[in-house]
Amino acid sequence: MLAKCLIRNYLRQPLDLAKRYGKGSWAVVTGSTGGIGAEYCKQLAKQGFNLVLFGRNKDKLEELDAKLKKDNSQLQTQIVVADFAEDNSAKFYEHLYRKIQKLDISILINNAGAVIPEFFENCKLESAISCSNINMAGPAMLTRMFINDFLKRTSRTAIINVSSLIRVVPSPYIKEYSATKQFLTLFSYYLQDNYGDKIDIQDLNPAVVTTNLSNHQTGPDTITPEHCVTSSLRDLGQEFCTVPAMIHSFIGQMLFVMNKFMKPLYRATFVNDYEMKILRAFYEQHRNKK
Ligand SMILES: NC(=O)c1ccc[n+]([C@@H]2O[C@H](COP(=O)([O-])OP(=O)(O)OC[C@H]3O[C@@H](n4cnc5c(N)ncnc54)[C@H](OP(=O)(O)O)[C@@H]3O)[C@@H](O)[C@H]2O)c1
């Protein structure tokens, strides 16, 4: 385990992704306007991929589009405005698929994600449904829409599912988030077992990344979106289940063992600490609004 971690983080070199998946082919990035999504766009554009930018806010998408094109003069893009919380019907996904089906898509990144920061017994039913639509239905349905095209391509293709390290435990305060991410990881295992010979599947498991979703937390255990995406693209095609930093691998192991064998310690440290952090962030936000 340790050797694998050391090799991954210090010795491994990335593959030539443009050569592997086809230069000028298209990458679909959901949640492209967020911290990790925008970084995937930036790095893939630099490597010569064209981009389908999925997001729910047209202005944010256009702003990202302009910025990416300014830095990459050859880049072609297509913007798709879609709110995964709103609809999970077959018609909704068929409509999205029809918008981009003619493009030579070689990479699908299921990155959009959301957290409901509330105790389960208090959470609004609408938010619970949105969370499962965004974190589970979205990735599963998009993958279903593209899988047959991917299997027909002569070059290899890739699917990255952005899960979370928090899936290894029933995380305090955001239990349904951990559960939806565990779904996504199991879904990736299914894809790997059935299509791994033709499609590079990646189950990406970061702990805290400094983005909106984590309230821009920083500290010795956090990483930047750039670090997260560089690690993901370095491992793509070489490792199925990946954790983007040594410190995150360590945290994952520790949480798993504590939750399984040392419940009181797990509650006294991780749960209390986590809930305090969230409450503090909530009060700070509230104070700043006043
Ligand atoms: N940050 C972390 O600590 C961390 C750790 C582990 C895993 N992850 C995972 O990483 C992925 C990216 O998150 P991030 O950290 O980059 O957070 P982020 O900056 O908040 O980005 C989330 C992205 O998802 C989009 N999104 C949210 N709700 C949506 C909806 N209803 N329909 C369509 N798109 C929606 C957001 O769009 P808007 O720009 O319009 O809000 C944004 O583009 C998520 O799947 C998250 O679970 C994050």
Structure in words:
With 290 residues, the chain is α/β, with parallel strands linked by helices. It has one domain: NAD(P)-binding Rossmann-like Domain (Rossmann fold). The chain is 53% helix and 12% strand. The chain is built from ten helices and seven strands. The protein has helices at 2-11, 17-21, 35-46, 58-71, 90-100, 125-152, 175-195, 225-235, 246-261, 263-289, and strands spanning 26-29, 50-55, 77-81, 105-110, 157-162, 199-204, 241-242. The protein has a seven-stranded parallel beta sheet, sandwiched between helices. Helix 8 (225-235) links the parallel strand 6 and strand 7. Helix 3 crosses helix 8 (225-235) and helix 6 packs parallel to helix 7 (175-195). The longest helix is centred in the middle third of the chain and has 28 residues, at 125-152. The radius of gyration is 19 Å and the shape is globular. The model has no long low-confidence stretch (mean pLDDT 92). The site of NADP nicotinamide-adenine-dinucleotide phosphate (NAP) has 27 residues, from helix 3. Keywords: NADP, Oxidoreductase. Pfam families: adh_short.
